[in-house]
Design brief:
By secondary structure, the protein is an all-alpha fold. Helices cover about 75% and strands about 0% of the residues. The chain has a single domain (about 1-450), classed as Amino acid/polyamine transporter I. The chain has helices spanning about 15-25, 25-40, 45-70, 75-80, 90-120, 130-140, 145-165, 165-195, 200-205, 215-230, 235-240, 250-280, 290-300, 305-335, 340-360, 380-405, 410-415, 420-450. The structure holds phenylalanine and sodium ion.
Length: about 450
């Protein structure tokens, strides 16, 4: 196994940070954040979400990074190395499965984004289609074959980059994608705030309805969103940190990633909610929200066609940088623990994920009657199982591993926090606060899961 270690690493620490930010910032910040926040009370949701990011998300991200950096292997291998002859590696295995499941539906939505980009480039969506954007989107996603083509195209690009490895593929791609993304995002946010009704969106996002604080659903959804958005609990961040050089320190990167990701979500909200109110779209309209509201806004604003092109470039780039980390997760496992070549591992995982994703896509068409969880369709159900169950469970296990399995000295050393005081705060959060909070939320969830 030794010959595999150190063979491919991040060229620079900045490259790692950009890649990890790329993993975090994605469809989760724009597409998922806006409809989950819309369905769960807006500002109250945002408040609980921010609380979870600071108290649970960032400390857990550091815990995940420290396992990967100390283990120097993939999700399964790192646990095996740090905890030989135990079952802890199952945490990594759940991550590998979770990564495959998430990318299966993530690539479907990414395909929608790519298709919209195409529609904007050709000018087809510069004017509202007959029956409106809502009907057009509904008709498009209910097709059996066309969305699959765009999903496959998106996965093809992802596969192409991941095949080239860490330094030559993922790092290079993110070095371009992330700065471009940040720039586009800022332009869009400034533009969004100049729209009429912008204040209504700001109000929705920043005026909490305190009564909602007693609604367990808000906590469950905010926790799931925090995990999904920060890419934690699934060992993808663990996998990324395993490619760090010994000398590259962790803690500063962690806080930066947490804050960046949150900033992106808030900016996206500021961009989207004003429009939702301006055009009377229901903020609780679910996964199609951004694909319906945004084109409606773009059409009625000055330079809307340019904005549309820019926006869907942005959304597709954000999706791509996240998809890279989702694919790298199983690829690293098959490559480093099972010994497949990177090329074969990437191709096999990519094709398998595509096939799995067909179900999510057809769930909006011929399989729309299939509702595995409650009245959720296939995509929503896989999303729920991953974001609200597997990711938090993975996060809980990571907290227990670092807080209770590893000796305190070792955990503290792996975290690479320099100050004694901060180390104690971090350790206390990981050992006590996070597990307790999460177990309480799980108990709520089990009590109400059937509604
Ligand atoms: N964080 C990504 C997003 O917000 C999604 C993701 C989840 C990526 C888990 C990797 C792992 O879109
Ligand atoms: Na995110």
């Amino acid at each position: 196994m030794n010959d595999l270690q150190g063979s491919d690493q991040w060229r620079t620490r900045l490259g790692f940070m950009l890649a990890a930010m790329g993993s975090a910032v994605g469809l989760g910040n724009i597409w998922r954040f806006s409809y989950v926040a819309g369905e769960n009370g807006g500002a109250t949701f945002l408040l609980v979400y921010l609380f979870f990011v600071l108290l649970i998300g960032i400390p857990l991200l550091l815990a995940e990074f420290s396992i990967g950096k100390a283990g120097q292997l993939d999700a399964v291998g790192s646990f095996r190395k740090l905890a030989p002859k135990t079952k802890w590696y199952l945490t990594g295995l759940m991550g590998v499965i979770g990564g495959i499941l998430i990318l299966s539906f993530y690539s479907v939505v990414s395909g929608w984004s790519l298709f919209y980009l195409y529609k904007y480039i050709t000018g087809a969506y510069w004017n509202e289609p007959d029956g409106g954007f809502g009907a057009a989107f509904g008709a498009w996603i209910s097709n059996s074959y066309a969305p699959l083509f765009w999903q496959a195209l998106f996965l093809g690009v992802t596969i192409f980059i991941v095949m080239r490895g860490i330094k030559g593929g993922i790092e290079k791609a993110n070095n371009f994608l992330m700065p471009a993304l940040a720039l586009l995002m800022i332009i869009m946010a400034v533009y969004g705030l100049t729209l009429d009704n912008a204040m209504q969106g700001v109000k929705f996002l920043f005026t909490p309805d305190w009564g909602q604080l007693s609604n367990p659903q808000v906590y469950i959804m905010a926790l799931g969103q925090a995990f999904f958005s920060l890419s934690i609990g699934i060992c993808g961040m663990l996998t990324y940190s395993s490619y760090l050089k010994e000398k590259d320190r962790l803690p500063a990167a962690t806080v930066g990633i947490g804050l960046m990701d949150t900033l992106f979500a808030v900016i996206a909200g500021l961009m989207i909610f004003p429009a939702v109110f301006s055009f009377g779209v229901d903020p609780a309209s679910g996964p199609p929200l951004v694909f319906i509201t945004l084109p409606t806004i773009f059409e009625s604003m000055p330079l809307g066609n340019v904005v549309g092109i820019v926006f869907f470039i942005l959304l597709t780039m954000a999706a791509l940088s996240s998809a890279l980390s989702l694919l790298e997760l199983p690829v690293a496992f098959f490559n480093r623990t099972l010994g497949w070549s990177r090329k074969v591992a990437t191709l096999v995982c990519g094709v398998f994920i595509f096939i799995l994703g067909i179900a999510s896509s057809l769930g909006f068409g011929i399989w729309s009657g299939v509702t595995p969880i409650g009245d959720n369709g296939i995509l929503d159900s896989i999303d729920y199982i991953t974001a609200n169950i597997m990711l938090p469970l993975g996060g809980l296990l990571i907290a227990l591993f670092v807080g209770w399995y590893l000796p305190k000295k070792r955990a503290a050393r792996f975290s690479e926090i320099e100050s004694q005081g901060l180390t104690s705060v971090w350790y206390f959060l990981v050992k006590f606060v996070i597990p307790v909070l999460m177990i309480v939320i799980f108990l709520f969830q089990l009590g109400i899961i059937d509604y």
